[in-house]
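WARN retry 2 of 3 for item q-0093 after timeout on previous attempt; input resubmitted unchanged.
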Amino acid sequence: MDIQHAVDNPNRLWCMTEVDIFRDIDAAEMDAMAQAAPRKEFKRGSLVYSPHQRVETLFILKQGRIRIFRVSPDGRTLTTAIVEPGTIFGEMVIVGQQMHDSFAEAMEDVVVCVMTKADVQTLLLGDQRIAARISETLGRRLGALEQRLSDAVFKSVPQRLATTLLTLSEGQPAPLGRGQHVNLTHEQLAALAATSRETTTKVLGEFADLGVISLGRGRIAVIDRQRLEAIRGD
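OK item q-0093 returned
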């Protein structure tokens, strides 16, 4: 397909646009990748993949957020990454990351574009620019995982919840000055902060009493980021 046809069909390129690893890729290259990356939608709370659904696939997240987590033998969960739109995740042995023991959960309704192992090898790893950016992405994710593990050991529950709320609310709009919204249940937030739902509800109530957040059904609004940052600490 020629460049002009790709430009005339911008919807075909939707999966590739505003994705960090594809910056400076021309229209013809994007179109070839777009043909190999069909869209798929997942409802909030559904699993995009799990250890019981092993497929070596690369996902490009276009809308919504994804939580990557693991489950210990005693049933405890550890969130290892929160994937934001415009980046990649998946079972990627082919690019140096093995996630066969991980789950990927849609934190809200999400749209992903999916690439097979063969297409990743041909279209992505064959391009030195994209391959280098994939390595950078995985490196950052490993660093974030190490920080989460450290936080789980050394930080208190209020610190972990403050960190999670600040991370999830960053860049969110604040309608009518009512704070930046985090649309999660207490149970979902507890899983992200590696604590129990009961403890999360208690600490959130304390945050609300301090005036740093407000609480609603399935929604938390960050009112005072500065004070929440003070609670988070270093």
